[in-house]
Amino acid sequence: MRMSSSDSWYFHAPVVQNLEQNFENLLTNSTIMREPLAERALSAEHKNSRVVAGMVMKHPVVVQGRKLMFNGTPTLCDIHVLLHLRAVFEEMTPIFKFATIKFEDIGPFMQYYMERNNISKNPRRSLIGSYKSDGILLASPLLSWYLNHGLVVTDIQLIIEYEPAACFRNFGDQVSTARRQGDFNPDHAILAKTFKLQGNSSHGKTLENKKKHRDLKYCDESKADELINSPLFSSISHLNENVFEIESFKKKKKPLDLPIQIGLWVYNMAKLKMLQFAYDLLKNYINPADYEYCEMDTDSTYLALSGVELEDLIITEKREEFFENQHKWFPIPVCNEHRAAYIQCKIERKPWNPRPCCQARMKFDRRTPGLFKLEFKGEGIISLCSKTYYCFGEAPAKLSCKGISKRHLTFQKTDFYGCS
């Protein structure tokens, strides 16, 4: 079963604050300082500073409180899961980060696989799940979730204070409205697909690393000799007998003017949503023996269930609580007027016959950002690695191979079995 969620378009506009005021607010609002406040006086070099990026703390702190962050403050910090809590998070390690993976870091099976298939053993940088991270930048809602679930912050290097402003609300509403129009009127399908593409891709551009931009030139050997001696030269590739590809740094300085806080916020909120789904929903309302994670992406997850429907697996004594809060997680086939009757039917495990008003609400909520929608239901999945899977049992099958265009995806289930 594949569940997916869309991210909300609510970001924050920066505001300049006095460093000393920020420091005092941090001490006043947090319940976590282990050392006397007198020992945390501002150093002389920072005492009268005014900075855009908030505050630098040179002394380590242990954060275990609930009221630490300002409203919407990204925080650069060191964070980890305590040893006795690692078993709680073993199904899905809670901290997502990029790390350099060496050949010695992977398990014996994958080492054997790489050697057998002559795969390069050079270290590679990958996105991983972890129990700790140093110098990670976290949005305050995600950091608050970590603190409320027992994670510990041992150092805060930077706090960036933001003033809440839903500056992209109109854009998010336009995307949702266009997609709803496509659901109700086939004539608007092309418009719905266009807005879906815009909504899914707009935040990615904000995280583009302009420092990696290069100029490419193709030339013969004589011109290559000239370009190699340039102070802007970066690398050369020999394409054939007398054709070379020269990569050079840009002559002009590229302004780093993209609003990276947008991408940071979207991906942090996506991580938060997936953690809430795993630990605040599934682990809270369903016996862990009744479900298994197969694969997860930025905003979707694939689960193997021991029952036909997810709601069939809800722990009996928690059914009322679950259905009271179900609308916060999923689109449900009921309007506000008939919600009490719907909850009673579900508690008693009776069938629910949605009225036309309830069906209309269900269609509306399917395009509401932040709710998980059922996108595929079948008999099984073959998950080889990130973004490479084959779901079967329902026609048509659902498959993905990262880096390959959909029109070239002609693989069958047997092809995936042969790789597993």
TrEMBL record:
InterPro entries: DNA/RNA_pol_sf (IPR043502). This is Uncharacterized protein.
